[in-house]
Amino acid sequence: MLWLLVVALAVPVSSTGYITLVTSSDRYSQSDRVPQEDIAIVFGAGLSANGTPSPMLADRVKYAVELYQSDRIHKLLMTGDNSTIFHNEVMAMKRYAHDLGVPTKDIILDYAGFSTYESCYRAHKTFDVHRAVVITQRYHLPRAVYTCRHLGVNVAGLGTPDRERYGLRGMSPYWLREMLANVKALWEIHITRPDPTFL
Predict the structure, then answer these.
(1) pTM of the predicted model, to two decimals?
(2) InterPro entries, per this entry (predicted)?
């Protein structure tokens, strides 16, 4: 039984370490160091009870707008979950970006970005994106960069603050979940290659 426990711990830890290592040169924490690209992919991250972006999602949109306003990108691809009429991440993202000064003509909406894998897959296959900046929290950034890169989008990643803003206690569940998500990412990318829910 001990060896099962060792394997159960080793697989997510090693998967996370591998993905973090191989994406290290393409991840940035400062907006002014991000390479210029035509488009940024902004991943959904949930909504508050009143339908506005969650704090994490608001951070992602704000960083994307900062890149847009500094002329480092020219379009925003908002990708998120609109699986029901009561949960529409991308419209909330669009409204927030527009309130911050981005014209609606420069905001593209992907209503079927139900996961990081599906968002990256659809960015390439549905929206014909080949190069981009991806924007998400730092804990999620290695997987986002790795996934998009292996699904046809050459990306650089901008990480928004997480531990600094939400603390160790607030981030612990996200870090644990991310380790498991990294195992799933490697499995989907290199073994099963599932089609997205909608293409």
Answers:
(1) 0.95
(2) Cell_Envelope_Assoc, DUF218, Rossmann-like_a/b/a_fold
